[in-house]
Structure formats: structure tokens, C-alpha cells
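Reopening this one. Same input as before:
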Amino acid sequence: MKSTKTAGIIIIGNEILSGKVQDINSFYLACELRKLGVDVKRISVIPDEIDIIGREAVEFSEKYDYVFTSGGVGPTHDDVTMAGIAKGFGLNLIKNDAIKNILYSRYKDLINSAVLKMTEVPEGSEIDFREEMRFPVVSFKNIFIFPGIPEYLKNKFSIIKEKFRSPAFYLKRIYLNCHESNIAEILNAVVKEYEDVTFGSYPVLGKPGFRVIVTAEAKSEEPLTTALDELISRLPDDLIVRVE
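Same output, byte for byte:
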């Protein structure tokens, strides 16, 4: 079985850290990557500061198979993601002719020196452009650089997401009508016995009929089924609402 691909997500923007804008991009990416079989290991929110962006990009790139950044790629003074990544890896920013041609072909009337800043990318970057995109996806090494505007990020990611697909996760849920403390000892024991399966326990408020959801997840079906059957056999029947 192939090893699970890992990912880190870096959300860049003072507006997130100051509470002016709510981050929804990390949630979207985490959900989509999970569906693709990619295990998100870390999500970081950092300011529009070149040195911090550079350090974070290098660290994530070394630790994870894929890195996704969001924000800081526009034409204004605080759009410094490209500069940060370039500095972190000790490279220069260079003007990319392919991006320049796209801008002139699509947005000729809007071109000025600020807009042309968006043609600058770290040396060695790759460009992925499809007709459905407003602007190409720029990647450097294993770092995929996305805009902060959620609609644009979703559009781009949905177009290229298949390149990240890995073997899927298998997931089961047990709905229980009890307090989490009622099943904690049983669950903890099963968790220790089945290390290839990831369990989660989540109290739920305000839902009629159940108060806890226990999840079991694995990269193959057989260990998941075995572990789930064992957990169910140890739980009192009257607590189990349903399994799906």
C-alpha cells in the first residue's frame, strides 16, 4: 500500500490575524484534500511579512509532500507571498513572460506597474494555466500558491485537484446516545489495540437522538472493519443509535 501523502496549509494575511476577515480557505482545502486521500498535518496563519513567509514556506516544504498557501498574491503593497518564498529559498524574483502574456491578453485595459508586479515569481517556479482560470496557478517545488479570495481559490483548486489524489481514506461513524465519559474507557482501550485506525470522539449539542459521534478512519477497509466491529461489540447496545 502506498504511503499517505501529507500536506500543510499556510494562510497569509494581516486581515485574518486582526479579525477583519474570517478564514474559510483552510477549512475548504482541508476538506477537499481529505476527500483526495491527503492527510493535512498542520494549518498555519501568518502575517504579510516577507521573513515569516519565507521561514514558514521552507519549513513546510521540508516536512510535507504538498504545501498550499493562500493570500498575498495581488498587486498591492502587502502582497508579498512571492517575495517571501523567494527569500526563504535564497532565490530572486523574476518576471514570468507567460503570466505577462496572459495579463495582456485578458486584462489589457487594466495593465499598470502595480498589476505587472503579479508577473514576478520565484526563480524555478512552474505555471499551470487553464482556460477556466482567471490567472494561472504558480507552484514552486512542492508549494502551490493560491489567492486569498475564496472564490478564486476554489476555482483554481477544483481545476487542478486531481493531481493530488492519493488512495482514499475509509471512514465510519457511530452515533451514540450517551455522554462521552460513558464510553471513554472502552474507546481508549480499542484505540490502543488498533494503531492502524484513527479514532475520533465528538460531543454533539442540540441534536435529538444522539449526543456523541465516534469516527473510525483508515487507509484500507479491512483494519477499519475489524476495529469497528471490536468497538461495537464492547459498547452497550442501548447506546448505539446507528452506524454509517
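So the earlier flakiness isn't reproducible anymore. For the record, The chain is about 35% helix and 25% strand.
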